[in-house]
Write a structure and sequence with these properties.
This protein is an alpha/beta fold. The chain has six helices and seven strands, in the order ββαααβββαβαβα. The termini are far apart. About 40% of the residues are buried.
Length: about 170
């Protein structure tokens, strides 16, 4: 039996009117939930990967500065799962999930060009939630999680493809 403590919830979306790229994870892990911060696990490579994408040392910055730098460069964050039962932090343990209102949020972002999924679970749930013909370019990324053991350089090569969606000439979808 699951205990009430096994029910986990996502954080609020980090977006504003400048958001061109929305990066979606699955559901914050235990370390992130305790810290009330996206990607708080010290071995999660998210901040290094996104830092390379936007050309800033996010890993060395405070959490609030990281979020401010992402927003200033047109990057938003959220999760595909609003709440779920999960013991531990692994995506494979997510059960009875309720999705976040992804399309509704995306529709409020006039400059949104692309939605990127941080890992396979985020992609599977996010694509199901967005439906068969989303208005935005969808990008699958290897998970930044330490549980995904792909070499950092291989992850980075795929994450760097996000740069094109932050260019001024990348046209928003309509």
């Amino acid at each position: 039996m699951d205990s009430p403590a096994d029910r986990k919830s996502s954080f609020a979306a980090v977006v504003d009117g400048r958001t061109r790229l929305l990066v979606l994870g699955s559901l914050p892990g235990e370390v992130s939930l305790r810290a009330a911060q996206y990607y708080a696990h010290p071995q999660n490579q998210f901040w290094r990967l996104m830092g390379a994408v936007i050309g800033a040392d996010l890993a060395a910055a405070s959490y609030q500065a990281r979020l401010a730098m992402l927003r200033s460069r047109g990057v938003g964050l959220w999760d595909v799962v609003r709440s779920a039962r999960r013991t531990g932090s692994l995506d494979t343990a997510i059960r009875a999930h309720q999705p976040n209102a992804l399309a509704e949020l995306a529709a409020t972002l006039p400059g949104l060009v692309a939605i990127a999924f941080n890992g396979g679970a985020a992609s599977k749930i996010g694509r199901e939630t967005l439906g068969p013909a989303p208005r935005w370019t969808l990008v699958n990324l290897p998970s930044s999680s330490p549980a995904h053991t792909l070499r950092f350089e291989a992850k980075l090569a795929q994450w760097l493809t996000l740069k094109r969606y932050l260019e001024p000439d990348a046209a928003p979808s309509r």
